[in-house]
Here is the input.
Amino acid sequence: MENKQPSVLDLLIETHAGLERQGPGSPEMTRKALGFLDHIDQFSLSADLGCGSGGQTMVLAQHLAGNIIGLDLFPDFVNVLNENAQKQNLAERVKGVVGSMENLPFEKEAFDLIWSEGAIDSIGFEKGLAHWHGYLKICGYVVVTCPSWLTDERPAVIDKFWTDAGSGLDSVAHNIEILQKCGYQFVSSFTLPEKCWTDHYFIPREAALKLLLEKYNGNETVEAFVAENRDEVELYAKYKQYYGYVFYIGKKI
Ligand SMILES: C[S@@+](CC[C@H](N)C(=O)[O-])C[C@H]1O[C@@H](n2cnc3c(N)ncnc32)[C@H](O)[C@@H]1O
Here is the structure.
């Protein structure tokens, strides 16, 4: 059967659905962030927003007590999470649902923990933290990664890349202030190491991009999509000292 003309969104989903992760991160760093939380053996309900195919959701499930709901816009990603939960005999406790982080389909003050890796910037750091606050129990935790400036120097090419992607970067200090302004006590923050970008994301993504080029041989939309992804890798290699994904951990006051 002939391949239909894919949209950029189709390509984004096709490239990422089979990957362990859809953005920078690693099981080690998920566990490191979990280490800042008290009483995780007493949690009854946690959410993983923008969970993608749920790589980090399964890590959370190995360490947290209680149930975990993963939420993502795209059914293809949520289906992978639910299949993996079945395979790992975790379907009783881990469930993926399709929905929007901007308008959570949950009861207020229901969660001990709201987790979100690599996703909050797509709705805005402040907007996300402010909206999610109402869904946490008092003393519940919010734990997110967000791309951030790491230096005062801000190369214009990086500024443009993230602005075009809909995610303006701010400094870590600014984001910590926002977190406090949104009603959380600041617990900790740390920057993801380079391997979270390279070994855990760019390298597996490049393998998926090669398959895409073979499948849609000669398709200009696919070639442009692959070129954009490769540009992102080059930018990171050249400018990684200026920006990175940062974990922010807060506790609802
Ligand atoms: C960079 S990926 C990160 C996925 C996963 N958390 C990880 O770290 O591998 C961002 C995810 O957020 C999801 N997303 C973006 N905007 C969303 C929204 N408004 N509501 C729910 N999910 C959203 C995307 O579909 C995507 O799966």
About this structure: The CA atoms of residues 72 and 243 lie 25 Å apart. The mean pLDDT is 97. The chain has nine helices and seven strands. The beta strands are 45-49, 67-72, 94-98, 111-116, 136-149, 184-191, 243-252.
